[in-house]
Amino acid sequence: MARSRVTLSIDNTTKIMTIRYIGELGGEDVNNTMMLQLLDIPDAWTYDSIIDMRRFDGTIMTTEIEDLATRWNGLAQGRDAGAFTAIISDDALVRARLSITQGLFPARTLANFNTLDEGLAWLHARRGEVAHTPNSDLTV
Fold it and tell me: What are the helix and strand counts (H, E) for the chain?
């Protein structure tokens, strides 16, 4: 069995960070590990993100999503306005709580997908829309 962990990778060309939850982890562990990694990324709020939960065997409680939102929103301070997050998970609970999660991250647009390819296509399409929006200060 693979070691449980949270990994974060950055694609500076596309400005997408991918955060993977792997194995059996508690929500507090996910939050703490993720925030420690995010603190090492200059201007982390300028990236769109993929939260890849396909290999995650745990459950993130609503209170833990609220905690992550408080910590992320304190770090980003609204500077992530207009950014996108693709959540990759076929978990019915993740899908059911998407509107709650969206409300906790008001500056970003969130969407849930079953496959990584679907999530990436959505991110690239959203970035294309933003790049073609008049008076947009976001660039591709």
Answer: 5, 5
Length of the chain as a residue count: 140
Per-residue burial over 72-111, b if 16 or more Cβ lie within 10 Å, else e, is bbeebeeebeebbbbbbbebeebeebeeebeebbeebebe
Nearest 10 degrees: Cα torsion 101, 132, 15, 98: 10
- List the structure tokens of 64: 């833990």
Which candidate, 110, 109, 37, 103, places its Cα nearest to that of 75? 37
21 closest CA partner among 36, 33, 10, 38: 33
Query: Nearest CA to 57 among 14, 5, 10, 102?
Result: 5
> What does pTM read for this prediction?
0.89
3-state secondary structure of 11: strand
Stated as kind and residue range, the H or E segment containing 116 is helix 116-131
pLDDT tens track for 77-125: 999 999 999 999 999 999 999 999 999 999 999 999 999 999 999 999 9
